Amino acid sequence: MFYLILENVFVRPFFVFGKTVDNIAYLLDENCSPWARALALVREECSDFGAAFFDAVGFDGFFEGYVCLTVPDGFRETWLNSHYGDLLRRIFASIYGSDFVDYKVRVLETNSAESTKENGARLSKEVERRIRSSMAQAAASQTDRRQREELNLYEKYTFDNFVEGECNLTALKACRTIVEHPGDSAMNLLLVYGAPGLGKTHLLQSIAASLQQSRPGLRIVYRQAYDFLRDFTAIGRAAKAKEWDRVNQLKQDFSDRYEHCDVLLMDDIQLLKSGLKCQARLSMLIRYMSRMGRQVVLSSDCAPFKFKKLSQGEQPEKNSPSHELTADLLNPLENCVAVGIAEPDFETRMALIRKMSEGIPFVEADREEICRYLAIQPRANVRVIEGLMNWLRAMHVLNNVELNLSNVKRMHAASKSGEAAILTVENIMEAVAAEFSLEPRVLSSKRQDAGVSIPRKVAMYLCRELTTESLKNIGDAFHRDYSTVISSLNSLVDQLAKDEVLRRRVDDIRYMLES
To answer: What global pTM score does this model have?
Structure first.
């Protein structure tokens, strides 16, 4: 244990809430005091008036990332925040490094200011009692603010409604782990990334909904990135308008919302591209919450390595489609747990369509085949699938169309008629070859092994089913004569009657070509 020498009296540093409070009073050896170093840097950049102004500013200590300052009255508090706030943040960041979060100002009572002036830097039991009392009041105030913020969550965005698949399994497991162990250093910070419409918002809101139920004592904040940007820039706009009371209120609201929450969930951080100061503030907030063991989960449209890193002072390109973030914000993202969500694979599309079509009156005998037909074609994201389901429901309601497999195929083809091409023998050969992992030219070769002969028969069969080409023309495309084509088709029909797996595979190729 070390001792602070104050007016030739040895005083032990004491502990508040299990943490050491540094620099409770002024040190006689000012050369080694962080506050003395800060004052020296301030005076280098300020006018004589500014230097004199800081004679009335006191230093209470550095606690949990915050530099605690004191001023004699509310006027000086407003003047300090409005005229020297950015300067102080820059200087404190240079002194304390990544441990610095922000500064806080406490207005001294009249008696306290006079007592401080009279007694200098003496640390008495009364001072200790008042510091402890002040911190206890702050803790009580924070508890009062812990009433859960209105999260505005989508009711359907829960883990129970999230369709699990190979494309999103890792991200889903990571988010479930957050619910079980919020704040665990192994999963803090967590970034969920992927293209729009793949389920990032669903997962973040599922975390919020689950924590609300399982840990009602936690204060959870879910915000879109543009909400954070709006909250931050509102302070600057009020300061520019010299509305100092509003500045103080907005700063307090910002601190209450973001700095005192237990779990912060923020969507689409790529939208902060143009807010460089906002990115710096978020970076400090992430470091602070991680150090305090509070959970942060972010989402973005791309992986961290795909962002362009802006160096100090570099501005983002206007109207550029590229993703750009400052080094301040990108550095923690590059070291975080990043989990991606990919485009839905066939099995996931099938599960999504089954779930989303539960309220659509498909003919029951055709329901599974309709779902399979709609799932065969790749879909970029969940929103596309949801839009397709809404469209089919509307067609049924507006036109009273029976939703059997035949009608669904017809309507689906008609809806894509503007972009669909007429099927040709070459199209079909390419699709079948891709399904069986072959080169298209192999289907018209002289090879007769089962690995080629079955795909060749399937291609001939689909050419007859889906095109108007004659059997002779089909034979010419495969370098086979008319009789060989007939024999191949008859052979495949017999095989399809016995082999359910092959029949399913052929139907899937047909659905893909038809859609």
So the answer is: 0.62
